[in-house]
Write a structure and sequence with these properties.
Elements: H1 3-16, H2 18-57, H3 60-94, H4 96-129, H5 136-141, H6 144-165, E1 171-173, E2 176-178, H7 182-186, H8 191-219, H9 225-259, H10 261-268, E3 274-275, E4 279-281, E5 284-286, E6 289-291, E7 294-296, H11 299-305, E8 311-312, H12 326-357, H13 364-390, E9 395-397, E10 401-402, H14 403-406, H15 413-440
Antiparallel strand pairs: 1-2, 3-8, 4-7, 5-6, 9-10
Helix pairs in contact: 2-3, 2-6, 2-8, 2-15, 3-4, 3-9, 3-15, 4-6, 6-8, 8-9, 8-13, 9-10, 9-12, 10-12, 12-13
Length: 459
């Protein structure tokens, strides 16, 4: 075979795999950015809380933690701006069919998110460079817009995704979008459960990830007050959020049961419509049935509809071409739920010991589990997004537009995936390198305006 023919075959295969490449690129970009975005939502609140405690109690350890976390916030915001910009371009480049048709419907939340982003950037700069140049109360007040804008950004972006799950706020006439109501579209029925679920997840990811860093340090023998507070402050906040999040997750699951029955069927591996359907724990879908699963009799009917004899629609209600990938959706849901309850158990462990003895659990097994709590929270987050996005397939706009109809038909999409993969690899290496340098350095730079902490040495 000539080199020209070989190149032609490669390009043909690349074009044929355009949809898969576009999906993979979007999954990589979203999966990477969502971790940084969660830190951007949850980390400022944890940092400001530590600063407030430092000023209220006079404890220098809190102020040291706040200053170190603020430096990491600045880095992560910059990295998140890069990954978020990539995502915004990908929406138009990869999915012109959707944006060209429905851009006027969902443009409002994206515009508002841009405003929130700029507010966050402006006040983050003020917050970072105003240490000891403003009185403590005024300095902490400069952080309030950061907290509000971070949560608002998450709300607006997730509201746009929620519209893809429950498209409203428009009418179709003659193949054209008319009668657009962008406010109805943004506040669609899926917005409340999905946005609350995501915002709480952000605080869990931020809290457990930050705490896991200090858990590792404590396992290595660093048991001083600085490291204990570095663990306790973010872990306690994440632990308090966890049971609330599980309740919100149940709310979101009921919404799916009522409004996206095919997704629920894929999440639980239900193929036939029946009453009194069992809850599947584990298992693999093979030849149209769920095998090797632990079944809890009538469990799904009870959880989904509060009735052990309730009917649950199966995947066989729709043609095979309209079903999401079952095993991916099912196992992503299982992993998300499993990680959530494991984090709840770990939180309860700390709570019980602290209530009785006012200290951390003495066993190293607790610290080992706490060191894994950050990765577990990230795994639950990513799994939840897999359920949300893969479970909606083959629709990019639920029951309105297929993903295959929205993808960019131009050749060479696969090469974009390769380039973006390299970019995210470089971003990952650079971010980890700088964060490690920050962790090893003194918590704050030695400068005249930082007299209260300049003499404190962290081991």
């Amino acid at each position: 075979m000539s080199s020209t023919a070989l190149v032609g075959d490669v390009l043909s295969a690349a074009e044929a795999g355009g949809l898969g490449a576009a999906r993979s690129q979007m999954a990589l970009s979203l999966g990477w950015h969502i971790i940084v975005a969660c830190l951007g939502v949850g980390m400022p609140a944890i940092t400001v809380f530590a600063e407030w405690r430092g000023h209220r109690t006079g404890d220098v350890h809190y102020r040291l933690l706040a200053r170190r976390w603020a430096k990491a916030m600045g880095l992560l915001f910059a990295v998140g701006a890069v990954s978020g910009t990539i995502l915004s371009f990908e929406m138009g480049l990869l999915w012109p069919g959707m944006m060209g048709t429905y851009g006027q419907v969902i443009g409002l939340p994206f515009s508002l998110e841009g405003i929130a982003f700029f507010i966050e950037a402006i006040f983050l700069g003020i917050y970072l460079y105003a240490w000891d140049r403003l009185p403590p109360r005024q300095h902490m007040l400069t952080a309030l817009p950061i907290l509000v804008a971070g949560v608002a950004s998450a709300f607006f972006v997730v509201a746009a995704n929620a519209w893809m799950q429950q498209p409203v706020g428009f009418q179709m006439r003659g193949g054209r979008v008319v009668a657009v109501d962008p406010w109805e579209a943004m506040f669609n029925p899926a917005t409340p459960p999905q946005t609350v679920h995501m915002i709480l997840a952000a605080f869990m990811v931020a809290g457990f990830l930050m705490a896991s860093v200090y858990a590792v340090a404590m396992l290595r023998g660093r048991r001083d007050r600085y490291h204990r507070l570095g663990f306790l402050v973010p872990f306690t906040i994440a632990a308090l959020v966890t049971p609330v999040q599980i309740g919100v997750g149940d709310w979101a699951a009921h919404f799916v049961a009522d409004n996206q029955p095919v997704k629920l069927a894929a999440m639980e591996g239900v193929f036939d419509t029946e009453r009194g359907v069992p809850l599947h724990v584990g298992g693999i879908a093979v030849d149209g049935e769920m095998r090797y699963a632990l079944e809890i009799p009538r469990g799904l009917s009870l959880l989904a509809h509060f009735d052990p004899d309730a009917q649950v629609a199966g995947l066989n209600e729709v043609p095979a071409r309209d079903r999401p990938p079952v095993n991916i959706t099912h196992w992503a849901f299982q992993i998300m739920v499993g990680c959530g309850f494991a984090l709840l158990a770990l939180s309860a462990w700390l709570g019980l010991v602290w209530r009785r003895r006012k200290r951390l659990p003495g066993t190293r097994w607790f610290l080992r589990a706490a060191a894994l709590s950050g990765p577990a929270a990230v795994l639950a987050l990513e799994s939840g997004w897999v359920v949300t996005e893969v479970g909606r397939q083959p629709w990019i706009v639920y029951r309105v537009m297929r993903t295959s109809e929205a993808v960019n038909p131009a050749p060479g999409v696969v090469w974009g995936f390769v380039v973006v993969s390299v970019v995210y690899l470089v971003l990952t290496v650079a971010t980890v390198y700088v964060l490690r340098r920050l962790a090893r350095d003194q918590p704050v730079p030695i400068a005249p305006q930082e007299r209260d902490v300049a003499e404190f040495k962290v081991v």
